[in-house]
Amino acid sequence: MGSLLSIFPLRGMANPSKIYFAEDKFKQSPPPPSPRIPRFAYLISGSRGDLEKLWRTLQSLYHPLNHYVLHLDLESPAEERLELASRVEKEPMFATVGNVFMITKANMVTYRGPTMVANTLHACAILLKRTKDWDWFINLSASDYPLVTQDDLLSTFVGLNRDLNFIEHTTDLGWKEGQRAMPLIIDPGLYQTTKSDIFWVTPRRELPTAFKLFTVQLSHIRKIT
After folding, report:
1. CA-based angle 128:129:134, to the nearest 5?
2. Residue 26 lies inside a defined structural domain of this protein
3. Are 213 and 171 contacting, i.e. CB atoms less than 8 angstroms apart?
4. How many domains does the chain contain in total?
5. Is the distance from CB of 142 to CB of 44 less than 8 angstroms?
6. Is residue 35 part of a domain?
7. How far are the Cα atoms of 1, 7, 8, 47, 56 from residue 4, in angstroms, in the given order?
8. How does pLDDT run across 23-65, given as a tens digit for each residue?
9. What CA dihedral angle connects 35, 67, 140 and 200, to 10 degrees?
10. Cα dist. 110→119, 189, 208 in Å?
11. Are 58 and 182 in contact (CB under 8 A)?
């Protein structure tokens, strides 16, 4: 047989000493590693009488991979805030994972006022100080309730670019130029300990020229960096 091979070499066999098997054709490279499961950071806020709703929302949203900041504003009775802190402390899963944090020094928050923005930024600062192991920030009220499970939400977002943001913006202010950009608005929550509505003062101001104003439409989900 050896002499036959030497006389009639196999066609296309440049190196007779190397043996090829049919199985080599079907060998596949190992699959790429699965993308890291995303993590969400939640702020859940409430006011007077929202304790049970806030707790219900937290329970329905909870997932060990996520992070949660809870806030009952200064209008809520001290008893409600103490009860919420007690529940968080006594919940075995929260204590084990350590991913639920309550803002114990309550802020006064005025609906539509800058104190709402200040409270949101306060929560973001707390989250970033505690851990940066999260990808998107979701701002909710105690009245919100999820339509999908957290497992489904995490699975949906696993293939998305982590730098993706859910914000629509434009410099075309429209009616907001005269009703929001030019009036001077005072938020009593900045200096009072009791809640009252924002109010407008005169005179109106001119539009700024040193920078552009944008109007945005935010979804609940944002990337904070």
Report:
1. 35
2. no
3. yes
4. 1
5. yes
6. no
7. 5, 5, 6, 93, 83
8. 555 566 777 777 788 999 999 999 999 999 999 999 999 999 9
9. -110
10. 10, 6, 25
11. no
Asked if residue 63 belongs to a domain, the reply is yes
Q: Which residue has the higher pLDDT, 71 or 218?
A: 71
What's the first-to-final CA gap in the chain, in angstroms?
72
- Residue 58's Cβ-side half-sphere holds a number of Cα atoms within 13 Å equal to 27
Q: Which residue has the tokens 């130029």?
A: 177
Q: Which DSSP symbol is given to 135? A: S
Angle between helices 78-90 and 51-61 (to 10 degrees): 30
Alpha-carbon gap, residue 141 to 54, rounded angstroms: 8
Beta carbons within 10 angstroms of residue 127's beta carbon = 20
What is the domain-level CATH number for residue 200? Answer: 3.90.550
Query: pTM of this prediction?
Result: 0.76
Cis preceding-peptide flag for 203 (omega within 30 of 0)? yes
Return the half-sphere exposure (C-beta side, CA atoms, 13 A cut-off) of residue 107.
21
